[in-house]
TrEMBL record:
Residues 1-21 form the signal peptide. This is Sugar lactone lactonase YvrE. It comes from Nocardioides soli. It holds the Pfam family SGL. Keywords: Signal. The keyword S-adenosyl-L-methionine does not apply. Gene3D superfamilies: TolB, C-terminal domain. The keyword Signal applies. Residues 61-263 form the SMP-30/Gluconolactonase/LRE-like region domain.
Length: 337
């Protein structure tokens, strides 16, 4: 099996090679409102100034949706801040500080459970630039009020936690973009714990770049569908056994598959650097798909993860295509604009 690491790849993508580059500081106007639903067409994120502490500006990736409370949470790659927004309010705010807060220097995927608890994947937070264990947490759990409930290390080494979804048992399941592994996080009698739930390294070949990423629970709640973006493959992990099989996707091009959104039988696949949105029809058991369409996204954005909130899909504009990121920093409802 080919062994590579993506920690240095991602950090290189957010590095700055031009000295003296600057970010525009003008404040954009508030987003237009959808008068029928009171929803914003875009949401403004607060970015960091470009300085020695933030040489690449602000770059973003994950988004989690709290349907019950009408809130969403966005992770910042550059520093690990967590931002929170509300349906219909075009400005978000920094909810949790980064740059070492709770040992968090970067953050990736986010999800929210029925109790409003927020689960944050740390990407390479625990391995850093060189892929070497640095003792930092790999993931965090927070209450809806922002109280830290857990900061955990995963078993094993070289772990890059990418995305997270809530299972039918109420536990959170985190994908690993380095190895074909999924970790389960739950609160037990002895407190919060994390364990390796599924290891598919004998079935899924580890390739260069991002391996397991986006994850969704199937309509029948018997499996997870997980994207392997570097090769454009979808995998089905059975909830009861963790057994993995490849999802039949026909000739659909899913290279750079990142965030996944499932609405009934419609699966939306965000293909970040390909700048495409693939829409497929997914069977209830998650075993096969049929391509409905491929749609080009805005050429000026690299969209990563997306989530549905109150009937609207929200997409994160990552700024991964900019050496030094400049505002406006946004979450958008229309991926083509």
């Amino acid at each position: 099996m080919k062994r590579t690491t993506i920690a240095s790849t991602l950090l290189a993508a957010t590095a700055v090679s031009t000295v003296g580059a600057a970010v525009g500081t003008a404040t954009p106007a508030l987003a237009d409102q959808d008068r029928d639903h009171g929803r914003a067409a875009s949401y403004l994120l607060t970015g960091d100034p470009v300085d020695a502490a933030n040489p690449a500006g602000s770059k973003f990736e994950g988004i989690g949706a709290d349907e019950r409370r009408g809130r969403f949470y966005v992770s910042e790659v550059t520093g690990g801040e967590i931002h929170r927004g509300k349906v219909g309010t075009a400005r978000t705010r920094e909810w949790l500080a980064g740059h070492g807060t709770d040992g968090r220097f970067t953050a990736r995927g986010i999800t929210v459970d029925d109790q409003g608890r927020v689960y944050v994947a740390g990407g390479p937070n625990g391995i850093g630039d060189g892929g070497v264990d640095n003792g930092r947490p790999d993931l965090w759990v927070y209450s809806k009020e922002g109280k830290r409930l857990a900061a955990l290390r995963t078993p094993g080494n070289d772990v890059f936690l990418n995305d997270v979804a809530i299972g039918p048992d109420g536990a959170a399941y985190f994908t690993d973009s380095n190895d074909a592994q999924i970790f389960r996080v739950a609160k037990g009698k002895q407190g919060w714990n994390v364990r390796l739930w599924a290891d598919a390294s004998d079935k899924i070949t580890r390739e260069t770049g991002f391996n397991l990423g986006g994850i969704v629970l199937t309509r029948d709640k018997k499996a997870f569908v997980v994207a392997q973006g570097n090769v454009g493959t979808l995998w089905r992990f059975a909830v009861k056994s963790g057994k993995v099989t490849q999802v039949k996707t026909g000739s659909a091009d899913l290279v750079n598959a990142d965030g996944l959104v499932l609405q009934g039988s419609r699966l939306t696949v965000v293909r970040n650097f390909s700048k495409q949105i693939a829409t497929l029809r997914l069977s209830a058991d998650g075993r096969q798909t049929k391509l409905i369409r491929q749609q080009a996204t805005s050429p000026d954005r690299v969209l990563t993860t997306a989530k549905e909130l109150r009937g609207q899909i929200l997409y994160v504009d990552s700024k991964f295509d900019e050496q030094v990121a400049s505002g406006p920093y946004e979450v958008v409802a229309d991926p083509t604009r």
